[in-house]
UniProtKB/TrEMBL annotation:
InterPro entries xrefs: ADH-like_C (IPR013149), ADH-like_N (IPR013154), ER (IPR020843), GroES-like_sf (IPR011032), NAD(P)-bd_dom_sf (IPR036291), Quinone_OxRdtase_PIG3 (IPR014189)
SUPFAM superfamilies with a match to the protein in the record: GroES-like, NAD(P)-binding Rossmann-fold domains
Organism (species): Cereibacter ovatus
Protein name listed in UniProt: Putative PIG3 family NAD(P)H quinone oxidoreductase
Enoyl reductase (ER) domain span: 16-326
Keyword terms, alphabetized: NADP, Oxidoreductase
GO MF entry, a single one: oxidoreductase activity, acting on NAD(P)H
Domain of life: Bacteria
Amino acid sequence: MSLPETMRAVEISQPGGPEVLRPCTLPVPVPGHGQILIRVAYAGVNRPDALQRAGAYAPPPGASPLPGLEAAGEVAAIGPGVTRWAVGDRVCALLPGGGYADYAVTPADHALPIPEGLDLREAACLPETCFTVWSNVVLRGGLKAGERFLVHGGSSGIGTTAIQMARALGARVFATAGSAEKCAACEVLGAERAINYRTEDFVAVLKAEGGADVILDMVGGSYIPRNVKALATEGRLVQIAFLEGTKAELNFAEVMMRRLTITGSTLRPQADLAKARYARDLETHVWPMVAFGALRPVIDSEFPLTEAAAAHARLESSGHIGKIVLAL
């Protein structure tokens, strides 16, 4: 396909609130060795985008300074060494950055075919959450069929994906959320019990069930010692974010006596090879869940690219259920 020299994009003019996101015009990037150029149809909006905008999450070396960690669209060009994809292929992909633009580059091995039964808008909602949930809940947390799984923030993009994926894997799923509406949404997606953290104690609920075998947490702060109390013997706590803070006081004797594991990760700084392995895992194990209808992206709202600031405001209001997307 014929490529223009310039493209629309949204840049971070300076660290700050949503208002610092500014439409701009930039040169279309050129894919390097092992990379593809995607003509973006939709881009996902995620918490790391907001952290980057605020100056708290710098892109890795060599990545685009533009926000945007996932997108779906058509392959517009391929770099040297790319054999799987051809111009015109429809893909969704994990991006190192740059999704808030008409065109974005990413390693070819981080792209996936559009799952059967999904359109580009839905597919744009999958990469960041599926890579994150699979690598943390399944690979780091070791969740198995029959185990009890608790996800905090069950109505978020990560949460809605984690509920469905864990349920498809045969786990018993529990979730926390901050309203009756959000709790109901979690249960519709497959949580057998959604806990309103404003009115209920998730520790008591999980201990009554025998404790959680795996907990996925993005809150941190005061939740860390409470998570430890909510774990079953030999349970695993997987930390992926710290909305409430990175520090907590913890009695490690409890960790030792009950043989608990505390782990966690961030996705963006990991090596390209690690992300390529996750992509292969998703295509083998998770994409069939999507095709069978066991996992479907939950979309809260859609904004045009020029209203990226409004999309960030919606994200940070915590009023959303599921994913927020930008349409290009």
